[in-house]
Amino acid sequence: MFTSGDDIPGMNAALYAITKAADANGIKTSGICKGYEELIDDDLILLKSTELQKVIQKVGTLLKKAHSKRFMELEGRKLVS
Q1: Is residue 2 part of a domain?
Q2: What is the largest CA-CA distance in the chain?
Q3: Which of 18, 58, 59, 78 is most buried, taking the most CB atoms under 10 A from its CB?
């Protein structure tokens, strides 16, 4: 799962709902921390609905956000598999 842009209210609740539905269907859900920068570095975390349920009331996103100068360049985008 990948989110981008500014933190918005309800993002953790949306992540929880998607992950809960995936869990119910036997699908594992991964999140990409800190946007494109960590996508380049392949920094994925396994999302668990039981953990997300604990943060659904918090503002922002569990996955964080970050700008990536590397992704703005073609060479940086080539690093994403």
Answers
A1: no
A2: 39
A3: 18
Helix (H) or strand (E) segment spanning residue 31: strand 29-32
Report pLDDT digits (tens) over 47-65: 999 888 888 887 777 777 7
Give 24-40 pLDDT, tens digit per residue. Answer: 999 999 888 777 777 77
**CA dist., res. 48 & res. 20, Å (int):** 8
Taken as a whole, the chain contains a residue count of 81
Residue 77 counted as domain residue: no
Provide the domain count of the chain.
1
| Identity of residue 79 | L
Give, in order, the Cα–Cα distances in Å from 32 to each of 12, 44, 59. 14, 5, 18
Residue pair 66/3 in contact by the 8 Å Cβ criterion: no
